[in-house]
Known about the structure:
- By secondary structure, the chain is mainly β.
- Helices cover 5% and strands 60% of the residues.
- It contains 1 helix and 11 strands.
- The chain has an 8-stranded antiparallel barrel.
Amino acid sequence: MIILLSMFCLPIFSQEIDIGEPETQTLKIRQWDMFLSLHTNGIGVGARIEKIKSIKLQHGFDMEWTFYRHFKEQRLNNFVLGKKNYFFLLRGGYGCTRILNTRPYNGGVEFGYFFYGGFSLGVSIPVFVNVYYIYYNSNGQAVMDIKTEQYTEETYIDMIESKAPFFSGIKKIKFHPGLYAKTGFSFDFSSNDNFVLKMDMGVAVDVYALPVEKMMYAPKQYVLLTGFLTLHLGKRKSIHDL
């Protein structure tokens, strides 16, 4: 992953301000933003901090938390039938954005492409349910009660009373270390150079050493592939702000 990032970024680290585009020259040196991401399997939030190398190049760090659901999930009375685990992604990486079309002073949209990659940590939390069970008291009478247990293939559907609280399975949490990469196109709509209003569109892939199991009777997954649309809001700092 580090080698691929280096091969991608090094050829454009040497780019300087184009002499033929004086109207787009700027003294911006860094920017940061918070973002909301909608992807094909859920939703995520994150932050990005970038150093502006030139008007054609930005590079920096990317952090993200993402909730991931299986495409076969179907909710029934506040319960997803067959769902074994809640699954979340924590990503942290490095990358760069290459600007292809800079925005002149009279307005417009800045356009480019990006590539980010790094470490991904998947988190699985088992689903627990409240189930009916019958026992006999000291008088020999049958008594029905409710207990909380992990939802598995052996759980009888007719015995489920409701879904247990989310944190019921926190003691059986599992971690899935891995790597991720995401790439796509970036559109900067900012009308003010001091603010960031940007939209990214692309694809992301996560690869794990330990497989992820989200649904019963569905194959375990070592690779997760998603498409995403991300909205960035933040600020830029110029050399005059120092």
